[in-house]
Design goal:
Ubiquitin-like (UB roll), homodimer, nine-stranded mixed β-sheet, acyltransferase (chains A, B), six-stranded mixed β-sheet, globular, L-amino peptidase D-ALA esterase/amidase, 15 strands
C-alpha cells in the first residue's frame, strides 16, 4: 500500500468537484436548520458504488456514524450520502439514533434506494435533537444533478463556520483510461458552540473493490486528514467517505495493478489537498503551517513530531506574530514521544536555517520576519536518526480564534 | 507512599515562605540580566540538607539541569540552589554546560560549600549564552538572610513574565515536633520568546533521608505539578528541588513512621498550592479551572482525562467566554486514551449538572453564566466505571494569551 511518487502521473483539475468523476450527482438545499445558508446536501451515485469510510476515534461517536457503519456492514456499497449541518446529532441517546436512521431511510425513499445504500453525516451543535420536520421537508426538496452548480450547493450545505468551500479533484490514467477522483470537505469551522467537525466526501469513477478502497483510504488518512490539527480536539462526528462508481472502465484496481500508484496518488493528493484547505481555514487562522520532519527513526515518529510541532500553541502564536522563535519548535520536539538526539537536530523556518547540529545559527531577523509574513509557512526539522519522514499541517493561533470560541452560545 | 488525607493534620501558614522552615536563608539581587527586576536568587541551608529533584521530560534538558543532576549524584545533599531568570541556558551546547558549572562553582565559592552541594536552575530565553560577567558580579552580591524580605527577593528573582510571586507554607506535627514545609515557584510566565518554564523550590526542616524524600516528591509531583497545564508545552528547564534540613528534630521519617501522613500531606499541599498558583497565573489567564474526574477505571486514567479536559483549547475558550459548553468537555473526554462508557457519563460545571448518564439535562443558562463569572471554575466528570479519581488544573485561553505569545522577540 506504499507508493513511489516519482512514477505516479496525476494532474490537478482546478474546477473539479465530487460530480466530475463519472456517475455522480449532487445537491444542496436550505431546509431551515440554519437561518439562511444551505444545510442539507446529498451525493448520489448512478450505480451501487464500492465504498469505504473512516470515523472519529472519539469514545462518543455520534449517531450518524453508527448508522453509516450499519449501512456499510451490509455489502460495503453506497448509492448516496446524506449530510446536514447545524446539528451534530451527537450525545442525543436513543432518540438521536432513531432520527439518524429516519434520515437515512427518508433519503433512500426519496431516490428509490435500499436503505443500506445510504450513508449519513451530521455536523453542528452537540446535545440537541435533529429538527426532524425540517429534515423531512428538506430531503424532499433534494434534486441532484451532475453540474458544478449542484456540487457547489452540496459543498455549501455541509459547511458550518468554515469561511470557504473546500473541494479538490485529480485525474490520472489507469489502463489508458481516464480515472478521476473528486472531493468536498468541511472542517475547523464551528457551529456555536461545538467542536470542529471534519467531514470529507470523495468520489471516483475508478473500478476498485470496497476492501481495497478501504485499505487505501485508511493508509492515506494517516498521512492527510489525521495529520492536520487546528486545536487538537477530535470531534464526535469526524468522518471520511469514499464512493467508487467503477464507470471509468479500468480493470479492477489492486495494489498489484501496474497503474495502482497512479490511482493511489490521485486519491492521496485529493485527501491531502482537502486536508490542507481545512487546516488553512482553521478558526481565525491567517496562515497555513506545514511542518516537515526528516531523519526520524520511523515515518510514524516523524508524523508524530510534525503534528506535535504544528499543534503547539506557542508555535502557532509565534507564527501569527511573525516571530522566528525556533526555541518553541525545540520545545515541541522535546516532549514528543519519539527518539530524538538532542545534540543533533536541525531546524529551518522556510529557507532560513536556525539550528544546525543543535547549535544556534546566526540569521537575519529581518529576513525571518519577511518570510513569516507569507500565508504559508514551512518548518523543516531534521533529526539525523534514520529515514523516517512525516508532514503535518495546521494554522496560526490568533485573536480571532479566541473570539470565535469564547462567544456565548446564546 | 499513599496517604489517607482524613487523618493528616496540616495547617496552612499564610505568610510562610522558603525561609520559614528551620535552617534556611534566601536572597535575590538585580544582576542586570533583566533591565530592572531582580534576576539572581539563592536559597542556602545551614546544614547539608537531604535533597530530591524532578526534571523536565523534554529531550532537550537544559544545561543547569544536567549540573544539578551531577551535584545530586555525589551524595544527594545540598547546601544551596542558585537560580537566574532572563536566560534559560538551554540549547547552548558545550559552552552552556561550562557556564552552568561555573555558575555552580561561583555560588559554592561565595558561601564556602563544596561544589556538589549546589544545585543550579535557569529560566528565560532559549539559545542564548549566559552573560557570565553579570552572573559573576551578581553572585558576589548575594547575602542570604532568614527574613521574609529575603524570601520575597528570591521569589521575585526567579520570575519571568509571571504577574505574581508564588509561595506556600504548611505546618504539621511529627513526633510532637513542629515540622514546616515552605515553597516558592515560578511558572507559565514567559520571557520573550520562550517557553513557559516551571521552577519550584521547596524547603522543610523535617528529618528525612534523601531517597525517601525523592520517592515522596516523585509521587506528589504526579498529582500536583504534572497535573497543571497552561498550553500543553513542556519546557527544557522545568525542575522541582526539595531540601530538608532535619532541624525540626523529629525521628527520621519513612513511610512506616506513625506521622508519615502528616509530613506527606504537608509536602503535597505545598506542591498542590504552588501548582494551582502557577495554573492561575497562566499567560493572559483570568480564571483557574479545576477538573475533577471521578469513577475512572484507575487514578492514572482519571488524571489523564482531567488533564485532557483542562488542556483543551475549546474548553479553555468556553470558560473564558462564560459559555456553559459541556459538548466541548465531552469532546475532550472522547479522545482521551482511557476507558470510557459513552452511554454513562455525568458532567457538571460547578453545581450545575449538564449531562447525567450521557443524557443532556435541562439547566438555566443564566445560572450557568453567573457561575462561570467566578475566578475559579470547577468541572466534575463521573465515568461510573470504577474508583479512579484525578484532578488537574489549568486556566482559560484569552486574547491576552495570544497577545503575550504573538509579540515579536525583537
Amino acid at each position: 500500500m506504499t507508493v513511489t511518487k516519482q512514477t505516479a502521473q496525476v494532474t490537478a483539475l482546478a474546477g473539479g468537484t465530487v460530480v466530475t468523476p463519472k456517475g455522480f450527482q449532487a445537491a444542496g438545499v436550505h431546509a431551515g436548520l440554519h437561518h439562511s445558508k444551505k444545510d442539507i446536501g446529498v451525493i448520489v451515485c448512478d450505480v451501487p458504488a464500492s465504498a469505504a469510510a473512516v470515523y472519529t476515534q472519539s469514545h462518543f461517536q455520534a449517531a450518524p456514524l453508527k448508522v453509516t457503519q450499519a449501512s456499510l456492514a451490509v455489502e460495503q456499497k453506497l448509492r448516496a450520502v446524506i449530510v446536514n449541518s447545524s446539528c451534530a446529532n451527537a450525545c442525543t441517546g436513543e432518540q438521536g439514533l432513531r432520527d439518524a436512521y429516519e434520515m437515512r431511510d427518508l433519503c433512500a425513499k426519496q431516490f428509490g434506494f435500499a436503505p443500506h445504500y445510504v450513508a449519513v453525516a451530521s455536523t453542528g451543535v452537540i446535545g440537541e435533537h435533529l429538527p426532524m420536520e425540517k429534515i423531512r421537508a428538506g430531503i424532499e426538496k433534494l434534486a441532484p444533478g451532475a453540474m458544478i452548480a449542484n456540487a457547489e450547493a452540496f459543498q455549501t450545505a455541509i459547511l458550518t463556520t468554515d469561511t470557504v468551500m473546500k473541494h479538490a479533484c485529480y485525474e490520472t490514467k489507469v489502463d489508458g483510461k481516464t480515472v478521476i477522483v473528486g472531493g468536498a470537505a468541511k472542517g475547523s469551522g464551528m457551529i456555536h458552540p461545538n467542536m470542529a467537525t471534519m467531514l470529507a466526501f470523495i468520489t471516483t469513477d475508478a473500478n476498485i473493490s470496497s476492501p481495497v478502497l478501504q485499505a487505501a483510504l485508511r493508509s492515506i488518512t494517516d498521512v492527510s486528514f489525521n495529520q492536520i490539527t487546528v486545536d487538537g480536539d477530535t470531534s464526535t462526528n469526524d468522518m471520511v467517505v469514499v464512493m467508487a462508481s467503477g464507470l471509468a472502465g479500468n480493470d479492477e484496481l489492486t495494489p498489484d495493478h501496474p497503474d495502482w500508484e497512479n490511482f493511489y496518488e490521485a486519491l492521496r493528493k485529493t485527501c491531502e489537498d482537502l486536508a490542507k484547505q481545512i487546516a488553512k481555514d482553521g478558526e481565525g487562522a491567517t496562515k497555513l503551517i506545514e511542518v516537515r520532519v526528516h531523519g526520524a527513526k520511523t515515518d510514524d515518529e516523524a508524523k508524530k513530531i510534525a503534528k506535535q510541532i504544528v499543534g503547539s500553541n506557542l508555535v502557532k502564536t509565534a507564527v501569527y506574530g511573525a516571530d522566528a522563535n525556533w526555541g518553541r519548535i525545540i520545545g515541541a520536539i522535546g516532549y514528543a514521544d519519539a527518539d530524538v538526539d538532542p545534540a543533533n537536530v536541525d531546524v529551518a523556518i522556510g529557507p532560513i536555517v536556525m539550528l544546525k547540529g543543535s547549535e544556534p545559527q546566526p540569521f537575519s531577523e529581518e529576513e525571518a520576519v519577511a518570510y513569516l509574513q507569507n500565508d504559508m509557512i514551512v518548518i523543516d526539522v531534521d533529526l539525523h536518526l534514520g529515514d523516517g519522514f512525516g508532514i503535518a499541517w495546521g494554522c496560526d493561533l490568533t485573536y480571532d480564534y479566541v473570539k470565535i470560541n469564547a462567544s456565548y452560545r446564546t
